[in-house]
Design goal:
- The chain has one domain: Roll (Nuclear Transport Factor 2, Chain: A), CATH 3.10.450.50.
- 31% of the residues lie in helices and 38% in strands.
- It contains 6 helices and 6 strands, in the order H-H-E-E-H-E-E-E-E-H-H-H.
- The model has no long low-confidence stretch (mean pLDDT 96).
Length: 204
């Protein structure tokens, strides 16, 4: 139970410190080889910290809210799943909008020198929606662009692409072979897999 509580605390600290721009403490939730995947970013945690800091300073508004966590511990390794929402505010087609994407953080944890920290964070995107901040605004989205993006993060990807981000198209959603592969490798991680990524994926 102590290990589970320590892991949940790391998950909570990730959201609080990242959204507050507390970059030095945010760095402590990761191991040195930590890896972050998002719709708009895939790379080392240290690089994620830097691009997040730059975005924060120029007014990018991405916030995270957490729900319950389920943690499975096996020795010095763990998998944590945490219900979450990603909330982003930005201008789309001349209107200020909010996107809310509901999903889970799927985290690969390792305990090193007595410290639990994240080795890999992979969000699972379940559903999303987009609303104008001013409810009197009538917003018409580009249907050809919208339909290009996966259903689980369609509106989030639409907003981000309109704001200059490149979007990764094959991320895990609520169902399907991509999320099943993630679950399978989570089990492999707990059983001692050499990497938090299957062969051919992740950092090379």
């Amino acid at each position: 139970m102590d290990d589970r509580l320590a892991i949940i605390e790391v998950v909570q600290n990730w959201a609080v410190w990242r959204d507050a721009g507390d970059w030095e403490r945010f760095r402590t939730v990761w191991h040195d080889d930590g890896w972050m995947t998002a719709t708009w970013f895939q790379g080392p945690a240290e690089k994620f910290i830097e691009v997040s800091r730059v975005g924060f300073e120029r007014g990018v508004n991405i916030l995270h809210f957490l729900g319950g966590s389920s943690v499975e511990v096996r020795g010095a390794r763990a998998i944590a799943q945490t219900k979450m929402t990603i909330n982003q505010r930005a201008t789309v087609d001349g209107a200020l909008v909010d996107v809310v994407c509901t999903g889970r953080f799927f985290d690969f944890f390792d305990q090193r020198a007595g410290r639990w920290a994240i080795v890999r964070r992979q969000p699972i995107y379940e559903k999303d929606r987009l609303d104008p901040v001013d409810p009197s605004v009538r917003l018409k989205l580009d249907p050809e662009l919208l339909i290009r993006f996966p259903e689980g993060y369609r509106h989030l990807a639409y907003l981000q692409s309109k704001n200059g981000y490149s979007i990764k198209f094959d991320l895990p959603q609520l169902k399907g072979p991509v999320v099943e592969r993630l679950y399978a490798h989570g089990r492999a991680w707990l059983e001692g897999a050499a990497s938090a990524f299957p062969a051919g994926e992740g950092p090379h």
